[in-house]
Amino acid sequence: MADQQAKDSSMPRREVLKHSLRGALVLGVGGVAGALSGPRRREGAVWQLDPARCTQCGRCETHCVLKPSAVKCFHTYAMCGYCKLCFGYFRPAANALNAGAENQLCPTGAIRRRYVEDPYHEYTVEEDLCTGCAICVKGCNTFGNGSLFLQVDHSLCVGCNECAIAKACPAEAFRRVPLETPYLLKGREGEA
Ligand code: SF4
Ligand code: SF4
Ligand code: SF4
């Protein structure tokens, strides 16, 4: 039923892609604005997470001083395969490819799945529900295109002098960078 409702209101995939890219740009700009205030501005630097180094160990969820963590799952839609079987969304032993809670990988149900057109589906992360656990990121990077990845959300991060996650990260994926370039967005490398 949910898939049928989405199908009736679906837009062509290229329109979804254009829409999603606009969304990604807004996210990046909003994050930069968030990084331009408070103690981070005075220090002139922020903590940045390199998704190419991240091994999805889970410490981004458990070691941030904030609960839930300031690290969130980001999505580069232009890299996504819009797969019917998304390894970032479905449990390996899912009984059916639908949005039943028993089929979902994300422990908080933070990823929304929407039918686009056969066989494509769009996956959207609800940041408020995301704890930065990296479970979906591991699934997407192991079997998919790697379009899901972690980043520090600078509208949430309080800019600790010594980032507790950076200290615990086994992959040395954190480093301090100028606040003008706080994000490393997959598919948009070199942009803020
Ligand atoms: S602590 Fe490091 S390796 Fe672990 S999830 Fe965070 S960035 Fe990835
Ligand atoms: S699986 Fe973890 S990292 Fe991915 S959306 Fe859910 S809470 Fe966020
Ligand atoms: S600097 Fe502090 S608030 Fe920001 S991600 Fe690291 S531990 Fe969390």
Question: Can you describe this structure?
Answer:
This protein has 192 residues and is an alpha+beta fold. It has one domain (2-178). It is built from six helices and six strands; from the N terminus they run H-H-H-E-H-E-E-E-H-E-H-E. It has helices at residues 2-8, 13-35, 38-43, 59-62, 135-143, 164-168, and strands spanning 45-49, 71-75, 111-117, 120-125, 148-152, 174-178. 34% of the residues are buried. Mean pLDDT is 83; it is low at 1-36. It binds iron/sulfur cluster (SF4) (3 copies). One iron/sulfur cluster (SF4) binds at residues 73, 106, 108, 110-111, 125, 130-137. The site of one iron/sulfur cluster has 14 residues, from helix 6.
Fraction in helix: 25-40%
Note the total helix count.
6
Spatial strand order of the main sheet: 1-6
Shape: globular
Category by helix and strand content: alpha+beta
Strand residue percentage? 15-25%
Q: How confident overall, as mean pLDDT?
A: 83
Cα radius of gyration in angstroms = 17 Å
Strand-and-helix sequence, N→C? HHHEHEEEHEHE
Largest sheet: number of strands, sense, barrel closure: 2 strands, antiparallel
Number of domains: 1
Hetero compounds? iron/sulfur cluster
Question: What is the straight-line distance between the termini?
Answer: 40 Å
Number of strands: 6
